Amino acid sequence: MIALVALLPALFAGPVAQAAATCDAPAVERFGPASVTGAIVGAAVHDGHAYVVTRGLKPPVLAEIDLATRKVVRSVTLPDGPAAGEPEGGWATAVSGGKIYAGTYPVPDLYSFDPATGQVEHVRSFGRNGGYIWSLAAAPDGTLYAGTYPDGRVWEYVPATGAVRDFGVLTPGERYVRAVAADADFVYAGLLDKAKLVRISRADGTVRELATGPTGFGFVAEHAGRVLATSGNTLIDIGKDGTGERRVSLTEGTLDVLTTAADGTVYATSRPDGAVHRLRPGDAAFTKIAEPPSQGDETRRVQLLDEHTLLGFAGSGGMWWLDLRTGTSELVDLIDAGLPSGAERPQSMLLVPNRAVYVGGHFSMEVRDLRTGEKRRFRMPGEPKDLVRRGEKIYAAIYPSGQIVSVDLRTDEVRGVGYLGHGQQRPWDIEYDAVTDKLVVASAPLGANLEGALSVVDPDTGAIDVYKGVIPNQSLMSLSVDPEGGVVYLGGDVLGGGGTPPVATSASVAAFDLTRREVLWQVDPIPGHRTFQDVKAHDGLLYGVYKRDSGTWIAMDLATREVVRRGKLSGYGELTAHRGRVFTSVFFGGGNAYELGAEAKLLATGLGDEWYTNPQLHFEPGSWKAWALAGRDLARLTLDPRCPA
Length: 645
Prior knowledge:
This protein is mostly beta strands.
């Protein structure tokens, strides 16, 4: 139940009659799921059928697709296991003994599905809530191997006996075993943070490093005495004994997933475009053989169905068939094929007053037309982490590509503006500065790197100037353009992309001059607080909400750079200024909204914790009504600070 604290009926008369009438307004109006998804993570093929696991649904759906009819013929849900928390998807899938196995997140549980009986079984837990089974592979004898996060381990599970073995920490400080493969003698693991490819003896657990990549490993396969692994744009092809290493790199983009033909030909997809490439034995370079079957998509798996047909699974929720002779492909939307869809945790939101509310989902944008009440949905090339409006276009900062795209408000046309590059694949915040007519983006690196960047984007030409390390040894979680324009304030995070020890101990804020392109000043408002979630400049103060320590908020005088107000909220979220006041909506405590003044005033509770990124409030001009979430529903809240609590 949504319980909006500030909206009890007011029992007053006379001068407060107007406020009382406002307080009698509905506390919350719901408009159904804010964002609907059919996105997938894990995928496998067995006996003429494909099996996919959804992303972002509670509980996740495992769907069976008949490859002959290209229709979903059966679906089951993966129920809660004994660990605290609910699964939301399964990145890892494998086939063993005729059963389909799926490893889930954010509870690292292993499930089996028996196509013969239709039964789902919770098999084993490999950690606590907050963990992932990132990767899963079956050895020829059916033994399963799981790579996990955040412990950076490989686990062995024997389906016939239920026996489990832990191979321990593969390398100090590693969090992600992003990819695994197995043969009769060894397990091969690709590590993300430390960029190592290692071999584990199935007999005695001995670990040996085979190669170090230019960046983290994302995919590993074995074929004919060789190990094939992707590290950024590079394919590393190496003997299982660590000899005869060969490296081949893409000239543009990064390698995503691959498969091998019987003759050793490698077929691989790339990010961020989603194109298909071929590398024949003896080739010195990849050859692009097909345009993206699903433009800008992540590919979850590719598999040869026969010598002329490549089957691919798109993360946005699609399957494609590529004719290797002609380079032509067919794409099937899995929702259209019968995949059960559902409400996901939204990434971002934007209100275009009197026209529409835009909600960013996983590879999609959902729009509610405020004039007609109708809803529509269109595809996006990734996760829109944040949205901003400039004229008749919306600009979105996209993960995992680090791309900036525009959306035409009149036609829904999505066009690429440019890529941040410089390792900045996690854009967290985007705003528009009217003085310089530029977009500004705060970002973090992906993987074991500390330095984020401020990027200044020309929306007309696509030119992007990237200022990496603008706060030294910190990534950027947030930014706020000065209300007068020309200056942007930045909020830092000492942990960077994670996976490497921080250098700084306190998150900084900094001011950056957008005309002169230089840092004006940098301070650490509270020693020992490591991560800002959001900052907002308003009325001579810079407000900030910390993620670490969660819920601490401040107001800092921009003239003196002294903290003049400080308090504690139930959690962290995004700040917004409206009608001369500052508001925030936060995770935890049931999902709360506050006004920040001399102290924090609780305006609403019971909103839930269903945002994927940060809780947000989007006020209608001239009113106290704000668009937000109630659970996973799109909602309009009445948040009038005048109403008695």
